[in-house]
């Protein structure tokens, strides 16, 4: 995976949720943690594209939708990793 790029993006209208893979240490062991960031793109009065982390009433359902998609991807990836770990554990025995 290329450093500094999300592993997935989910979009609904102007709202985007990016899924990031981060390496962290848990109990002294390196592990991967997935995190999500959410933003809204818009053009200001001069036509310049900008990002915001605030949402209007009509954008909140879009934010919920993309966050749900990111959550589903996180759960699926975690389940897949657990299966791989279980198979590797059986193979070691």
Summary?
This protein has 93 residues and is α+β, with helices and mostly antiparallel strands.
Molecular structure report:
- This protein is α+β, with helices and mostly antiparallel strands.
- It has one domain.
- It contains one helix and four strands.
- It is elongated.
- The chain starts with 7 loop residues before the first strand and ends with a helix.
- The model has no long low-confidence stretch (mean pLDDT 90).
CA-based shape: elongated
User: Helix content range of the residues, please?
Assistant: 25-40%
**The number of domains:** 1
The averaged pLDDT comes out at 90
**Amount of beta strand:** 35-45%
Please give the order of strands in the largest beta sheet: 1-2-3-4
Instruction: Determine the structural class based on helices, strands and strand pairing.
Output: alpha+beta
As a whole number of angstroms, the C-alpha radius of gyration is 17 Å
Order of helices and strands: EEEEH
Number of helices: 1
Question: How many beta-strand elements?
Answer: 4
Q: Unreliable stretches, pLDDT < 50, 5 or more residues?
A: none
End-to-end C-alpha gap: 31 Å
Give the biggest beta sheet.
Answer: 4 strands, antiparallel
Question: Topology, pairings included?
Answer:
Layout: E1 8-12, E2 15-26, E3 29-43, E4 49-52, H1 60-92
Antiparallel strand pairs: 1-2, 2-3, 3-4
What distinguishing features does this structure have?
elongated, single chain, 4 strands, alpha+beta, 93 residues, four-stranded antiparallel sheet, 1 helix
């Amino acid at each position: 995976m290329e450093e500094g790029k999300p592993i997935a993006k989910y979009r609904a209208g102007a709202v985007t949720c990016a899924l990031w893979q981060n390496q962290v240490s848990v109990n002294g062991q390196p592990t991967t943690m997935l995190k999500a960031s959410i933003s809204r793109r818009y053009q200001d009065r001069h036509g310049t594209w900008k990002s915001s982390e605030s949402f209007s009433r009509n954008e909140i359902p879009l934010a919920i939708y993309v966050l749900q998609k990111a959550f589903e991807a996180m759960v699926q990836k975690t389940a897949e990793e657990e299966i791989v770990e279980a198979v590797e554990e059986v193979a070691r025995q």
